[in-house]
Amino acid sequence: MVNSPQHKVKPDVFGFRVNHLNILLLMDDLHSVTYLPKLAVMPGTRQWFLGCAKYGHQITPFINFAQYLGLTPTPNEITTHVVMIKAEGTPIGLLVDEIRESHVSVDACKIKTEQAPVSDLLKDYIISACTIKEETYYLVDIARLVKCERFLNVSL
Question: Residues of the chain whose pLDDT is less than 70?
Answer without folding.
Answer: 1-11, 101-117
